[in-house]
């Protein structure tokens, strides 16, 4: 095992799967079916085959979109996002408190508001520092003031670092939940003009696709892991499936050309597994309506397995 700051880096035996069938945070329907698609892709069996004990806690209850009001156009479905994020945060916190590994499957990326809140609460109680590796085509660092869409899935990372609408920033009573120096973004290739200013203001480490092209994905993730292993106690990986190129993962709500290729994505996750230092994982934005025979969900399930120790040999 690699040396670690404390024992939270030891691999956890028990995985708790939490489904978050939410699409109110995104502009397009369908990601609410992501958790089902991942389960159909045999997620649980893949993890059991790796030797883990797995419990599936089922889905967080979410009221269907057709019955909701959009509300503020700059913070679409805010109330529903807050309400459901609260249940998610409590569930994640409980799972961590009992020593299990939370695997949250979405759902749109607004789920990170709840996931990171629950993790931050657990870390605060146990005097652990939190690091987040955000793998995404997008930075998700908009606020209600900079968003071009009003979709909350474009805001969770900024909000977690203390920038954005007070209801998101103060959510779950911890503010900020994450320090920018303990945050790294990887795979970025679509940032809104105003969103750039937020990135500059907070200044987390950002590895764009150009950086991945130049350095190689292995060097990028190794650099981040090396730094985080020395500086934080809990590493959370937030994986947006649209980080991968749409040619291999077409089933996502907001596809952007020029993403990680098949092997880059696996190598990224395999390197995270080798480090043995991931303490929680969430996978967001699988959209079965836009998918082709569930290939994106199967790919996402494969990537989850790679991040949990699946090896070629
Ligand atoms: N989690 C995601 N897929 N986010 C996409 C965000 C797209 C765009 N930046 C927006 O704010 O609307
Ligand atoms: Mn995202
Ligand atoms: Mn994205």
CATH architecture name: 3-Layer(aba) Sandwich
- Determine the CATH superfamily: Ureohydrolase domain
First-last Cα distance: 19 Å
In what range is the share of β-strand residues?
A: 15-25%
The largest sheet has its strands arranged as 2-1-3-8-7-4-5-6
Bound molecules: arginine, manganese (II) ion
Low-confidence segments, given as residue ranges, are 1-10
What gyration radius follows from the Cα positions, in whole Å? 17 Å
- Tell me the CATH topology: Arginase, Chain A
CATH C-level class is Alpha Beta
Helix share bin: 25-40%
Tally of DSSP β-strands: 8
How many domains? The number is 1
Explain how this protein is built:
The structure is a single chain. The chain is α/β, with parallel strands linked by helices and 313 residues long. The protein has one domain: Ureohydrolase domain (Arginase, Chain A). It has 11 helices and 8 strands. An 8-stranded parallel beta sheet has the order 2-1-3-8-7-4-5-6, with helices on both faces. Helix 1 (34-40) packs across helix 11 (295-307), helix 3 (78-97) packs parallel to helix 4 (111-125) and helix 10 runs parallel beside helix 11. The protein is globular and about 50 Å long. The model is unreliable at 1-10 (pLDDT under 50). One manganese (II) ion binds at residues 109, 136, 138, 140, 240, 284. It holds the Pfam family Arginase. Mn(2+) binds at residues 109, 136, 138, 140, 240, 242. It is an enzyme of class 3 (hydrolase). GO terms for molecular function: arginase activity; manganese ion binding. Keywords: Arginine metabolism, Hydrolase, Manganese, Metal-binding.
